[in-house]
UniProtKB/TrEMBL annotation:
MgtC/SapB/SrpB/YhiD N-terminal domain boundaries: 20-149
GO cellular component entries: plasma membrane
InterPro entries: MgtC/SapB/SrpB/YhiD_fam, MgtC_SapB_SrpB_YhiD_N
Domain of life: Bacteria
Organism of origin: Cohnella thailandensis
Entry's localization field: Cell membrane
Keyword terms, alphabetized: Cell membrane, Membrane, Transmembrane, Transmembrane helix
Pfam families the UniProt entry points to: MgtC
Protein name per its UniProtKB record: MgtC/SapB family protein
Family designation: Belongs to the MgtC/SapB family.
Transmembrane segments: 45-68, 80-98, 110-143
Amino acid sequence: MFAASGSVWEISQAELAVRMVLAAALGGAIGIEREWNNHAAGFRTHILVCLGAATIMLMSIYGFSQFVNEPNVQVDPARLAAQVISGIGFLGAGAILRNGSGIKGLTTAASIWTVAAIGLCVGAGFLTAAFLCTFLVLVSLYVLNKWEKQLLRHRRTHKLEVTFSNDPEIVGRIAEVFIRRQMDISQLRIHPDESEEGAMKLEFKVKRIRFEKLLEAVGEVGRLEGIKAVETDGLDSPLAA
């Protein structure tokens, strides 16, 4: 986009500043989407990753230009960039959280890794790829996310934990509540409740058809005789999954 000053190993101060500001802007654009959806790595994190990657790329290409003409010196502009790609993994790993049998943060970890790649593109002056990648990432995170939720809305499951007195017939009554509403039960497990002597805990997953039906079922289970507590993985929003 910009013409390098002098030779391929030199860059003007203005172009240097433009690339660094552009990296911060592109990284921030992706970070805003993550921040808006309350993910672990948000606006500032994505800016720092993209800007840091761009700075390292700029240093890798132009930071050692004074040694280019030295005898027995081989310049490899991609050497530091390769370390960014492999080293950014520690940030991605920090964004991944395990919650029981589920894992959260994989998309955010992937966005951090992709933002690093965008920063490297900006630092190297590969601006068309940087803009295109940013656009496709935003489409993936925002547009495709909504499409995916709509497509899989009937496949979502809720995890429920029901604490009840030690009565085998209660399990059948609980199952009847959900079966009557045509809601599938899976991964059922019964074990003693460690927090209360003589009580049992039933853990299972329910395939949700409509949010209203799920609320009705949970309310009815809570009113059954012998039920001490009903806990779920979140019923505060129709979009909870």
